[in-house]
Amino acid sequence: MATAGAEAVPATVTKAARTWTPARTLTTPGPATVASRDAVAWGDYEPAIRRWEQVLGHPAPPPAEPGPGGRTRLSAAFAEWMMGIPHLVTGVPGLPRTAQLRIIGNGVVPRQATAALRLLTGLAAVPGAPPGTGTSMRAAA
């Protein structure tokens, strides 16, 4: 990090032009096909991506797609796939990309919700407690 006055600026940023070069990019050349998914440069994330593909039984979609003006942007299908719900939101016809991303971003990862509920259910079942205590959502009067 290079500093300019009190402002911390990454070393790859030039103050005059304010251009930024990311350290790592994930891009996919060409259309999103099973053949092209192997062309994604996953870098350090490759093992995790391949494990998640095995868990879900679905190949990873391209992480980026062409956006307006030719710039790449996050693929809604990839965000959905990362949450473990492939095609649940992006499969809805007529839903714009911004709405898809909002729904996906406000969603809950099903596997994490399941783990949390199991943990909380186990904690609520206190051994030796009288029946009906510690498991009710209603406060004691």
Task: Explain this structure.
With about 140 residues, the protein is an alpha+beta fold. It has a domain at about 25-110. Helices cover about 35% and strands about 10% of the residues. It has a two-stranded antiparallel sheet. It has a two-stranded antiparallel ribbon with strand order 3-4. The longest helix has 15 residues, at about 110-125. The N and C termini lie far apart (about 60 Å).
List the helices and strands and how they pair.
Layout: E1 2-4, E2 7-9, H1 34-37, H2 46-56, E3 64-66, E4 72-74, H3 76-82, H4 97-105, H5 110-124
In short:
The chain is an alpha+beta fold. Helix content is 33%, strand content 9%. The chain has a domain at 26-112.
Note the main attributes of this structure.
33% helix, alpha+beta, elongated, 4 strands, two-stranded antiparallel sheet, 141 residues, 9% strand, 5 helices, single chain, disordered N terminus
Please state the structural category.
Answer: alpha+beta
The H/E string reads: EEHHEEHHH
Radius of gyration over C-alpha positions, nearest whole angstrom: 22 Å
Count the E strands: 4
